[in-house]
Amino acid sequence: MNHAINAALVTGLLATTSLAGVIDLFAGDTVEMHGITLAEDPTLAGTVIQDFAQGFVLPDPAGEPLTGSFHSRASRRADTNQIDFRWRITIDSGKTGEISSIIINGFAGWSVGVEYRVDAVGIVEPSHASRSVDDQYLGFHFNDPTLR
């Protein structure tokens, strides 16, 4: 089963203003990601200022549609007042699929650093991140797209 966004549990993706531990991402760049933990950067434990989840249904002409949720969270760092954005996709139990990338817009003009949280909930880790030449889109890309 192949869908545009088929995800089981994607490791917590992080976009933040540039700080130690995250990788600066400039317009037109693609960078390799290795993961970060809260122990490596305790400032990741900021105050949540926005948190929501939205369900999705992806049709599958050959069978049952894929259903799940897209989660988004923004938190403010106490030390710098900078904002971290985290995203996670979950699919409903018993489903499988593949994911090749997640593209998120709305970052034109912002300094951005990226990484994923190794100690966050999730089982699918992105291999690299990219930023569009026009500076608007962030992409998180997956080498091993298998979802369970």
Give the spatial strand order of the biggest sheet: 2-9-1-6-5-4
How much of the sequence lies in strands comes to 35-45%
Fraction of residues in H or I helices: under 10%
Determine the number of helices (DSSP H or I, runs of at least 4 residues).
0
Low-confidence stretches: 1-13
Count of structural domains:
1
User: Would you list the SSEs in sequence order as H and E?
Assistant: EEEEEEEEEEEE
- Average pLDDT number: 76
How many whole angstroms does the radius of gyration measure?
A: 15 Å
Structure description:
The structure is a single chain. With 148 residues, this protein is mostly beta strands. It has one domain. It contains no helices and twelve strands. The protein has strands at 13-16, 23-25, 30-32, 47-58, 66-76, 83-91, 97-98, 101-105, 112-116, 128-131, 137-141, 146-147. The strands form three sheets. The protein has a six-stranded antiparallel sheet with strand order 2-9-1-6-5-4, with no helix packed on it. A hairpin with a 5-residue loop joins strand 10 (128-131) and strand 11. The protein is globular and about 50 Å long.
Pick out its properties.
148 residues, mainly beta, six-stranded antiparallel beta sheet, four-stranded antiparallel beta sheet, 12 strands, 44% strand, globular
